[in-house]
Amino acid sequence: MLVVMQAHATEEQVRAVCQRIESLGLKAHPIPGAIRTAIGITGNKGAVDLGLLESLPGVIECIPVSKPYKLVSRDAKEEDSVLRIPTPGGDVIVGGNHVALVAGPCAVETEEQCLAIAQRVKKSGVKLFRGGAYKPRTSPYSFQGLGESGLKILSKVREKYGFGIVTEAIDNESLDLVEEYADVIQIGARNMQNFSLLKRAGRAKKPVLLKRGMSATLDEFLMAAEYILSEGNYKVMLCERGVRTFADHSRNTLDLAIVPAVKKRSHLPILVDPSRGSGWGGWAAR
Amino acid sequence: MLVVMQAHATEEQVRAVCQRIESLGLKAHPIPGAIRTAIGITGNKGAVDLGLLESLPGVIECIPVSKPYKLVSRDAKEEDSVLRIPTPGGDVIVGGNHVALVAGPCAVETEEQCLAIAQRVKKSGVKLFRGGAYKPRTSPYSFQGLGESGLKILSKVREKYGFGIVTEAIDNESLDLVEEYADVIQIGARNMQNFSLLKRAGRAKKPVLLKRGMSATLDEFLMAAEYILSEGNYKVMLCERGVRTFADHSRNTLDLAIVPAVKKRSHLPILVDPSRGSGWGGWAAR
Amino acid sequence: MLVVMQAHATEEQVRAVCQRIESLGLKAHPIPGAIRTAIGITGNKGAVDLGLLESLPGVIECIPVSKPYKLVSRDAKEEDSVLRIPTPGGDVIVGGNHVALVAGPCAVETEEQCLAIAQRVKKSGVKLFRGGAYKPRTSPYSFQGLGESGLKILSKVREKYGFGIVTEAIDNESLDLVEEYADVIQIGARNMQNFSLLKRAGRAKKPVLLKRGMSATLDEFLMAAEYILSEGNYKVMLCERGVRTFADHSRNTLDLAIVPAVKKRSHLPILVDPSRGSGWGGWAAR
Amino acid sequence: MLVVMQAHATEEQVRAVCQRIESLGLKAHPIPGAIRTAIGITGNKGAVDLGLLESLPGVIECIPVSKPYKLVSRDAKEEDSVLRIPTPGGDVIVGGNHVALVAGPCAVETEEQCLAIAQRVKKSGVKLFRGGAYKPRTSPYSFQGLGESGLKILSKVREKYGFGIVTEAIDNESLDLVEEYADVIQIGARNMQNFSLLKRAGRAKKPVLLKRGMSATLDEFLMAAEYILSEGNYKVMLCERGVRTFADHSRNTLDLAIVPAVKKRSHLPILVDPSRGSGWGGWAAR
User: Fold this and answer.
1) Nearest CA in chain B to D214
2) CA end-to-end span of chain A, whole Å?
3) Which end of chain A has the lower number of beta carbons within 10 A, N or C?
């Protein structure tokens, strides 16, 4: 359910509608747009008594949302969401017509490694630096990441070069630390349906980069983002990184067609990570 | 690396080898077999000095394990692992030539629902009852399970009918509770590569039922089990439940061929959950 | 479009309806059922003038068929199609509740090989013998089959043991010969959408065994069968043989769930060929 | 097996080697390169007596080819194959660093339709015009193409605008006509493993555009091309057009990573057809 406010509705009017929604035991999600604000309602089991809401000052109409995803939908917000990520080097803009680039090593290994890569990345003009301190590894015997000391190395890179830092959290404990040290919290493909982690990310104060699961459909991908928004964090960017298919000549098959498909249905920005989809070795080179 | 003990090696000899392994800063995993015990070594970055181990009393030989999975492998244990699950109705045996059946509702909804289903399940001779108190749902707006009150309902079913209870944990918090209330901890398909949860399950005292991820390869499936064993919990049973394919006439495609493929490579038992692979509606009926 | 005849409609009435249909420039497909005959109409670009048909003696009603497949559909024939295949050893029945088994070598290599295998197959009670004289091979340098001399070997097996012979045709030329020598014409997975070959099979006088393509959906599979029926050959049996998925532990993934899905939508019999779906080597062993 | 000739080997020397090969009952495939000619040998069941060949004038060495594909391999020809297609508007070059564009309607429907589209295509600078006169359709009730009258319409487009014509053949009969009327013979995805048709295309005098099958692996794709080359037609261009995956937001998933994978292994040019991989409707718009 969405409550659509008039173009010139005041903040008090929006607040009053939200309070009425909350008083019904529901959750209100005000989504400000360029022209008007819409208020998403979640938590309703069945129909909401519209009369209660439509008669409030500033309300144009209440419309039901038939798609399974609500807050991420273009119905809730017609124009593109544009995220502004504060970094030591100034705000980085992701979404709309802005081109955002992210680069860095797969894993944070040493301070020297990270600083050396950071120097080159800086020269290329990229403003967001990525590197994993917590690595979800297929084998328990593979290097699992440096943990908090890896985050501290990323902090030094951040201070020295002014980057915004993007790094992955793999559980609630690591998310606490990533939220503290980094500028963007990454949720990896293997955790795209770790709903407990998504909810925790939805309560974080930092933007979230959500990677598509290895075999996630478009709907499942958008629903995973919906988990984050439904907890109150609207600063979400999606990321396509290749899907699992029968093809054996590359690690994954990059599904570029999901980009326009997402843009059609959702206001969220979407990035593309070509490293796994461009061959077997590419993922190590980024 | 595996240390193979003589058929008549004593417990003290096994213990002495384990102590020597631990003194090298490594982890020892004694795996008792019908004929002899093998001791898996994990935690080694490179080669282990074999001389130190091969000269100990009771040791036949040290053999390197080339496969990515070690403890779950037939190399580590030649004969089938047979799990003995203590339940109020007596021990339930899973593995080897024993036929184990699990039945119950998708989600625990009410005490009445569970008791009614339990009565019928009991009549059919099934000894393990399943039902979700924590449900990983694609949508944040779907019923997420009753949580601990669901576990309490399952406890009543357990007491009344003597079942062993199998129920899913979705994060560390729910795993603590599932471990307390249930007899088998289920890790669902969406969490098959939630490595943080797998490690926690590896430290649990109860057996674990690990479901195959939606697009997990055989190696990834066995490696996920390896995570649990590597933390010390050897009571793991696997479960095939269908994989994601292009086929659109059923929710998932049941991959029965993985059963002999697992049996060839691993000593762990494997169950089959046909509910999703047999149609679109089947999953609701189990 | 289907014309449903009364239970006691006479053969002349059916014939008259067919003639009227043909006089409209359309094709009539009388499909006799246990209780009544339905007459499928194909060739119509748009709506057919029903009045012309519904008023004819013996007609109950004309019903439009909304599914893309018509003649293979349960709408056209409610009860299972049961094929009766004349063989030197008596009629073999395929479909309904009859269990039909097919066995034999992958390729016909020599007379000795075929006779030796046939002797064992005979003992097992199987009545349909298969073996390829024309082999569709991934490599142009692999053995392509013995061609007509292979068919002659199959003829000897047929005479000696009384089998019905099932063998693959790969183009119009081989289909001419297969139709002459064999009892069932097999269309392989790679040719499931070789529509030119399907049409030729539809004009054949022998029953057709149509294998599912490597990545064919249920609808595509039924539509391929529809090609054969639409040319006038209603003696079609389908065969599931595994589909292409990401799974790398077996050559293909056997999709058993398509069996009930086909049975729900179509009256045609469906067989299962487990050889490729049960491992990498299984296909050679059948 | 490949016979590598000296850089300055004469035509007579190449011819003599070919004759010697043929006299052994094998097939010789001289493959001229920028620097030297290699001669592929096919038809050998086992090892060839190299002494017979290595001692001939102009021969450097004989090397075995371990890959399943031989003539399409970079081993047989190190540099890119560049095809020169004669058209009324001059030669069109496909391969190497040349950018080749193909455009036109899905199906040839009327002369007016084709001429109208051709006018626009001409303006865009595209030199190869495509349009189907023979359409492989999932349903027998869909428009199957105009056949030879469609080819005649394409001929008029060819004469009027100077295009090279690319059009699909679906069986031996249509291939005879396509070879007569068109400049490039297209083999569609559904026929990529119609080996009988591939062999016929290998005996054609016109270049062949071979589309990747819906679920063809890289090796299967190259082997399908090998069929054509092994019959003597070396003018083959490949075409990626999207593969079948679980993704349901587009008709197929375009697998761009196959382009560098093909370029690494084969000297053949490869085109990309984005129409099916870019959405559900895109295919109709090209």
Assistant:
1) B246
2) 42
3) C
Give C286's pLDDT tier (boundaries 50, 70, 90): very low
In this prediction, residue C142 has a pLDDT band, given cuts at 50, 70 and 90, of confident
| Of B246, D139, D143, residue with least CA distance to C222 | D139
Four-residue CA torsion sign, A117, A122, A125, A126: positive
Instruction: Quote the distance between the C-alpha of residue B94 and its chain's center.
Output: 11
> CA dist B38 to B24, B47, B94, D129, Å?
18, 18, 22, 69
The residue type found at D44 is N
Residue A46 structure tokens:
């069945």
Instruction: Name the minimum distance, in Å, from the CA of B243 to any CA of chain D.
Output: 10
3-state SS, residue B113: helix
pLDDT band of residue A279 (cuts 50, 70, 90) is: low
Minimum CA–CA partner of D251 in chain B? B246
**Mean pLDDT of chain B, nearest integer:** 92
The beta strand positions in A131-275, using DSSP E, are 164-168, 184-187, 208-211, 236-240, 270-272
In angstroms, what separates the C-alpha of D95 from chain A's closest C-alpha?
21
- B245 neighbourhood in chain D, CB within 8 Å: 246
Q: Chain A within 8 Å of B80 (Cβ-Cβ)?
A: no
Residue-wise burial string across B100-120, b where 16 or more C-beta atoms lie within 10 A, e elsewhere: bebbbbebbbeeeebeebbee
Polymer length of chain B? 286
B-C contacts at Cβ under 8 angstroms: 71
- Helix C218-230 / helix C195-202 crossing angle, nearest 10 deg: 40
Residue C87: C-alpha distances to residues A57, C90, C116, C183, C207 (Å): 84, 5, 20, 7, 12
Question: To probe the interface with D, which of C172, C193, C217, C219 has the most D CB atoms within 10 Å?
Answer: C193
Q: Which two tokens stand for residue C89?
A: 């050893």
φ/ψ of C167, rounded to 5, equals: -150, 150
Put simply, the answer to whether D217 touches A250 (Cβ < 8 Å) is no
Candidate from B248-257, C52-61, D275-284 with smallest mean pLDDT: D275-284
* Residue to test with chain C: of B67, B220, B222, B245, most C Cβ within 10 A: B245
Q: Is-contact D83 D164, C-beta < 8 A?
A: no
Q: What pLDDT does C1 receive?
A: 82
Which chain B residues have a beta carbon less than 8 Å from that of D245? Answer: 246
Q: Tell me which residue has tokens 């963007």.
A: A184
D250 touching A (Cβ < 8 Å)? yes
A183-220: pLDDT as tens digits: 999 999 999 999 999 999 999 999 999 999 999 999 99
CB pair distance less than 8 Å for B245 and C243: yes
For residue C214, give the chain A residue with the closest CA. A246
Angle at CA of residue A147, ends A144 and A153, nearest 5°: 120
Cβ A258–D247 below 8 Å, yes or no?
yes
Asked if B138 and A193 come within 8 Å (Cβ–Cβ), the reply is yes
Closest CA to A202 of A177, A168, A179: A179
What are the residues whose beta carbons fall under 8 Å from the beta carbon of B233, sequence distance 6 or more?
B201, B202, B203, B204, B205, B207, B208
Inter-chain CB proximity D219 and C141 less than 8 Å: no
Which DSSP symbol is given to D270? E
Determine, for residues C244 and A246 on separate chains, whether the beta-carbon distance falls below 8 Å: yes
Q: Look at residue A46 in the predicted model and tell me its pLDDT.
A: 67
Partners of C245 on chain A (C-beta within 8 Å) are 246
Distance from CA of D232 to the nearest CA of A (A): 28
From the list C252, C251, C232, the residue with the least C-alpha distance to C242 is C252
Chains in contact with C, counting 3 or more C-beta pairs less than 8 Å apart as contact: A, B, D
- Radius of gyration over every alpha carbon of chain D, rounded to an integer in angstroms: 20
Q: What is the pTM of this model?
A: 0.89
**What ipTM was estimated for this complex?**
0.86
